[in-house]
Design brief:
About 5% of the residues have low confidence. This protein folds into 2 domains: 106 residues, no CATH class; 67 residues, Arc Repressor Mutant, subunit A. 74% of the residues lie in helices and 0% in strands. Helix 3 crosses helix 5. With 182 residues, it is mostly helical. It holds the Pfam family Sigma70_r4_2. GO terms for molecular function: DNA binding; sigma factor activity. This is SigE family RNA polymerase sigma factor.
């Protein structure tokens, strides 16, 4: 059993049947790194991202019997998003700025997630919901309807947040170029 499974299962004491436990273990083993990558883009902090994923998985564990027969990924993704927004409403603080050393550690599954510190800083400057829309649409490659379901909002909200977010990212990322060209 991996350390991730031990951490998640260690937080919840439950008398579940073996097939449910095995199904949950398989799901976590298959999706944990992907979920952490998404959480890392949102939080820009490895430890906080892992805590966020573990909290979401603990919440899902209690309902695993009912959600495993449907699309557990959509349910877990929605739980991850609601947990993320809940944390930020309580904390009201901002993550630390990424260093080059942090960027070297972002590789997941032998793929570099994002190797552009300017892009990560620009993402960090967006409001939390707008950042979540951009991450889900362009890093997770979700459709507008899947993103809306994950965030609990309308497709129109996803469209408008995507448009505004991309425009703000463009301004953030090109404003430095204009200064350097002078």
């Amino acid at each position: 059993m991996t350390a991730e499974l031990v951490a998640v299962r260690g937080q919840v004491e439950d008398q579940r049947s073996t097939p449910v436990v095995a199904d949950f273990d398989e799901y976590v083993a298959a999706r944990y790194q992907h979920l952490v990558r998404t959480a890392r883009l949102l939080t820009q902090d490895w430890a906080l991202a892992e805590d966020l994923v573990q909290s979401a998985l603990v919440k899902c564990w209690g309902s695993w019997d009912s959600i495993r027969s449907e699309d557990p990924t959509a349910y877990v993704r929605r739980t991850l998003m609601t947990t993320y927004f809940s944390w930020w409403r309580r904390r009201r603080s901002h993550p630390e700025r990424l260093t080059e050393e942090d960027l070297g550690q972002i590789a997941v599954d032998d793929h570099t997630m994002v190797d552009n510190a300017d892009l990560l800083d620009a993402l960090r400057s967006l409001p939390k919901r707008m950042c979540a829309v951009i991450v889900l649409r362009y890093f997770e490659d979700l459709t507008e309807s899947q993103t809306a379901a994950a965030l609990g909002c309308s497709i129109g909200t996803v469209k408008s947040q995507t448009h505004r977010g991309l425009r703000r990212l463009h301004v953030e990322l090109t404003s430095g170029e204009d200064v350097s060209r002078r």
